[in-house]
Amino acid sequence: MPYALELRQRFTPLQNRYDLVGFRDGSETLLGYAEQKRFKLKEKITFYGSDDKSQVAFTLGARNAFEIAGKYDVCAADGTVLATIAKDPASSLFRSTYHMVIGGRDLLGTERTLWKALFRRFVDLPLFPIQFDVLDAGRPVLTIDRIMQIRDSYRTEVADDSVDWRVAAAMTVAVDAFMQR
Using CA atoms in the order 26, 32, 34, 35, what is the torsion angle rounded to 10 degrees? Predict the structure, then answer.
């Protein structure tokens, strides 16, 4: 059964913080929040189950510092790798592109339209929408759409119920945090 997530950015001076809300069968559930400290050599975003940081739900972390083709692991709280997200630097020159490996499945994530991707690169307007699709052999697995607001907010529709919500949430944060807007 398909589900949706919404990622809502909070304003803070020293870190990116996001509230994560899940939607299924018409009900809304607060799943927790993500926190990314700025100015780190090795990117890491921690997702907490609650605001008091007492329970880590999962993490999205770079394997190495300073690499052109960044590879990030989505890890469960116990360290188990749920998925790997790797940036495709050549394809990303014109349209941000990521390869995702989830349980042996190779998925391709890319900005939905080339002209919007190019426009976004040359006209850096923060309110310009980002639209991103993750496909499995051409079939949509999840779609990510930036909601037009002052604060960043993203709506992720997950068409494939086998995709763990933690992986969908990590990809949504990656679209905001790593796309070099």
Answer: 150
Torsion of CA 178, 109, 83, 146, to 10 degrees: 50
Tokens of 61: 């972390």
Tell me if 21 sits within 8 A of 32, measured CB to CB. Answer: no
pLDDT digits (tens, 9 = 90+) for 126-150: 656 788 999 999 999 999 998 877 6
Length of the chain: 181
pTM summary value: 0.87
Of 35, 26, 37, residue with least CA distance to 57: 35
Encoded amino acid at 118, one letter: L
What amino acid occupies position 75? C
β-sheet bridge partners, residue 109: 98, 134
